[in-house]
Write a structure and sequence with these properties.
heterodimer, A: 295 residues, mainly alpha, 2 domains, 13 helices, B: mainly alpha, MetI-like fold, 0% strand, elongated
Amino acid sequence: MSEAVSTWLQAGASPLFWPTIVLLALLAGFSIYRTAGLEGNRWVGTLTAAVFGLWLVFFWEVLVRCLDVSRVLLPAPSFVLASMADHAPKLWGDFVQTVGKAVLIGWALGCGLGFAVAVAIDRMPFLQRGLLPVASLTSAVPLVGIAPIAVMWFGFEWPSKAAVVVLMTFFPMLVSTLAGLKASGKLERELMYSYAASYTRTLVALRLPSALPHIFNALKVNATLALIGAIVAEFFGSPTSGLGFRISTEASRMNMPLVWGAIVVAAVTGSLAYALLVALERRAAFWHPSIRGTK
Amino acid sequence: MHKEIEPPVSALGRPGGKTKKTPLQRFWHNGLPVAVVLLSVLLAWYVAAWRLNAPGAIERVLDEEAGYTQRELFEATMSMERPLMPAPHQVVADFYESLTEWPVDNPRNLLYHVAVTGQSTLIGFVMGTALGLLLSILIVHSRTLDRALMPWIVASQTVPVLAIAPIVLVILGTLGFSGVAPKAVIAMYLCFFPVTVAMVAGLRSPQTIETEMMHTYAASRWQSLWLLRMPAALPFLFPALRVGVAAGLVGAMVAELPTGAVAGLGARLLTGSYYGQTTQIWSALVMSALLGLTLTASVALVERMVLRNRGAVA
């Protein structure tokens, strides 16, 4: 940072400081207003959000630095980035521990089990009527609370977190798959019937493909749920690495830049996982009206 | 081979549609399967308690030298002091004891913790809903706000926002807030996101023909918001409220963890795990499940009352 800028930054008390900030704020507001007025495809639409985000980070940085806000209260973005760079190996270890092991394995197992059970009870309306209300009610129940018990059963390492994730992701997948299996059109089902297609054939050729949007929805919701589950489960007790462990211990040590860093890692992971699943859905269910319509 | 094929319902062409069922028939149709599922869960729980507690029971309760019968082993697993998996009747007994043996303002009574957690959840829920409503109204009326904020709010749904809870606690703690306020703030921001997303969709749901009609009536923005957009958005609002109140409860419980675990259901879970009081953890879990169900059910009840008058719910 050049000499002039840093003296200006330190001179929070200088009479020119607040007028400059107000001027910049006006400029920011005007630029956001103008970009929002632009017509065009959806990239122009998200451009406004990007401009807004950049201005927000800018003001965050400048105000926190100039007003000398304590690092505990709100660290400047540059501090967060620096702390992330300093502790990169640590954060990478946390990422592997939480996302690579607990989330990925728990998510795959939970979604797989939910899907398998849904397909298995597809021909048992009795069980469906019994399981569906119970499964839907679980969304109102704080399932993460099971974490201390999971720790007791499976130990402090990642399997206990994966167990929590399995429990949290199982029910949404079950409910969505059951709904998806009912989503195929009457006309198509009658066509399969007129072809004398067997149950399995109808399932594979018609009902599972038409369930794909529902299944992908559950996969996407579950990706976020799995991250929340693993991180919160680590709040309850964990080995000496993991994103949740990092967040809770560094917060109790008031090392806020690193806490923010761990949250940035979690947030980026969540968004990337979501984007990946959306891309996958576009390839797998390219024929579905909901996807064809957005091209 | 051909018998395997089940015709789709419409292929049978059932005449006259479905016949209406009597309440008793409906109970057998819907209630019985649920009861069967719940009973099997209970049975599985007992089996799990028996299998999981057996090693501990052999080691701590039974005399290995003298030998024991399977019946003694089973009985020992069902009544252990600190079992790996408490049997359902132990949890029920603990639950009942905590509700009846202690006054409501005693930390040993679960209702005390329900009050603590429920209070912060509800305060946060009300604040989050109000904030979400306000912001969604602004977003619907301002293209700039819509373009600048909406992508971030939508993206926040893919991010584990609950992870920010410790930061909120530290920030509010440094500013001198303690007690209900930090928990309510966490519950608030968790309720806020789903309500905003749903209300923006809901306020935009009236069709062009309806908004144009308001226009021809020379209705002001306020009138068309109040008479058209708001009523149209209600069916979108309530599912979001149900999601929000459940998320708020989780937030309030998580917020209780780092505060020294003084009071609340989350704190109860944590102290239980510190001291290996498994039965206490389970009854706290059952209580938080009941609280979650009650909160969502109350929202659903309000939903029915509000929407029934408008014929939106059959």
